[in-house]
């Protein structure tokens, strides 16, 4: 697949299918766990998994920081001229080094401070006990989750998106059946769900390593000149994608604490289901960004603005499709999601529809806002990507989560994300139009 000369529509949708499969199956790890633990332990199980969600957000975001940040630079270098494998592989090697350092830090934090972290994230009583049970087997596999995110990004940019998807699919399929076997057949409950997820991540990692034994592989570990500078470049380029996931974790913590303060455990259990639905919607948005990013990065390096605009057209269309889909589902069948992810009480079924319908409005805008950060990164506009990710993930959303319940009543908290997404859309759409117009002056005669 020639990203510089091939037919854009065909290649984009091949990349989209691969990225969508990879992102969707990745989300299955946490979502199937939520469903199995919720069915086994009831609403308290769902509440426990909601508390654990920020840990996943941190781990995945660090993998994206090294993977997306490095692979954007990797592809841009190769797009500028041929014969740049050595130089581009310095960024791959720097990403590996950075991933090892970050994995060790997170690993130690989860091993030694799991209880403290879970209490900070809003756990107490039975949900805390169940969350600790789930974490036990995860402790053995923490680095693998981070490495899998980093490697998947590079495999897509090294023209092997199918293997990235196949690897995640292999681990995800095991996780689905392993969850049922360990949770119910072996009667292990939350600990069994954690064990299935840990083994699934190991399977994914092993399958991804097969890429390095292919003849077509161009990823190499090389000597890195000025490694600190390259790691800085990777972090600057990848920060916005990294912050999207970190922010989701931060927002989950804020929501957990505010919900327990104003609404109680039943509402927290419903929010646990919202986290799972939002994970699906967010993964769909990731797939659009990850499908378009290799295309945009390499064509930006080559000065082919016309091709970038065509990719943008397809990306905006698929973003709109995913936004409408998830909003429609959240509004139309809220209690179906509740029954999938837990064995609900009558109290939960009573409050869930209004909560999901209020929050679900945000899903119609979410895919575009997330895609815009990938677009800005691929065009080497980290400042715009930074504004979108920080405003959406912390500043506007954090302020609304804290203020709305106090000013407009407890249930107003569910409108915090729809309002946030709308305000960010105003800025993001303006900047997308501005930078797309600028491509004309950069790429005349080259597209």
Number of strands: 0
Number of helices in the DSSP assignment = 16
- The helix/strand order is HHHHHHHHHHHHHHHH
Major sheet attributes: none
Distance from first to last alpha carbon:
18 Å
Runs in which pLDDT lies below 50 for 5 or more consecutive residues are 441-447
Task: Describe how the helices and strands are arranged.
Layout: H1 8-41, H2 43-80, H3 85-112, H4 114-120, H5 125-138, H6 142-157, H7 161-185, H8 190-208, H9 227-262, H10 265-302, H11 305-332, H12 334-341, H13 346-360, H14 366-378, H15 382-408, H16 416-443
Q: Could you please describe the fold and organization of this structure?
A:
By secondary structure, the protein is an all-alpha fold. The chain has one domain (8-443). The protein has 16 helices and no strands. Helix 1 (8-41) packs antiparallel against helix 10, helix 3 packs parallel to helix 9 (227-262) and helix 6 runs parallel beside helix 8 (190-208). The longest helix has 38 residues, at 43-80. It is globular, with a radius of gyration of 21 Å. Residues 441-447 have low confidence and may be disordered.
Give a summary of the structure in a few sentences:
By secondary structure, the protein is mainly alpha-helical. The protein has helices at 8-41, 43-80, 85-112, 114-120, 125-138, 142-157, 161-185, 190-208, 227-262, 265-302, 305-332, 334-341, 346-360, 366-378, 382-408, 416-443. 84% of the residues lie in helices and 0% in strands.
Short descriptors:
single chain, 447 residues, mainly alpha, 84% helix, globular, disordered C terminus
